[in-house]
Specification:
This is DUF2383 domain-containing protein. This protein is an all-alpha fold and about 140 residues long. It has a single domain, classed as Up-down Bundle (Ferritin). Helix 1 packs parallel to helix 3.
Length: about 140
């Protein structure tokens, strides 16, 4: 059972690493200081989840994923295209990434059990909901 939990948590970890990478790319291209500050806050939230998930995987005796995997490559390509369009498109991509992350947590939370399930449901999912809502609000203010 611990191996399945490690696999599920590593899937979440790869998604969080991808989010950090995508925010980093977007922040580097945003000139509006207020907007950049909000994105930096979201990136920090994802970085904290990366650290928490890594720690949990190690406690279970697993080896944490080191990269974002295929989703990270996709996110870079999409973000690269958004960069050509501007801030609004970049925010759209980030919000879609938040949608994806939220759906992953909601779909796979029950793939883990006991303390790991509590960790996902009580820590990761609520924090993901907050960053998702923050990006949704930001997107609405830009459109």
């Amino acid at each position: 059972m611990a191996q399945n939990e490690v696999e599920t948590l590593n899937s979440f970890l790869r998604g969080e690493i991808s989010a950090v990478e995508t925010y980093r790319q977007a922040i580097g291209r945003i000139s509006d200081e207020r907007l950049r500050s909000q994105l930096e806050d979201c990136q920090k939230d994802h970085e904290e989840r990366v650290a928490a998930i890594r720690e949990r995987i190690e406690r279970l005796g697993g080896k944490p994923a080191e990269g974002s995997g295929p989703w990270g490559i996709f996110a870079k390509v999409v973000q690269g295209g958004a960069d050509l369009i501007g801030d609004k498109a970049a925010i759209q991509v980030l919000e879609e990434g938040e949608d994806h992350g939220l759906a992953d947590y909601q779909r796979d939370a029950d793939q883990v059990h006991g303390d790991a399930r509590r960790f996902v449901r009580m820590e990761l999912l609520p924090k993901q909901k907050r960053t998702h809502e923050r990006m949704s609000r930001l997107k609405r203010t830009l459109h």
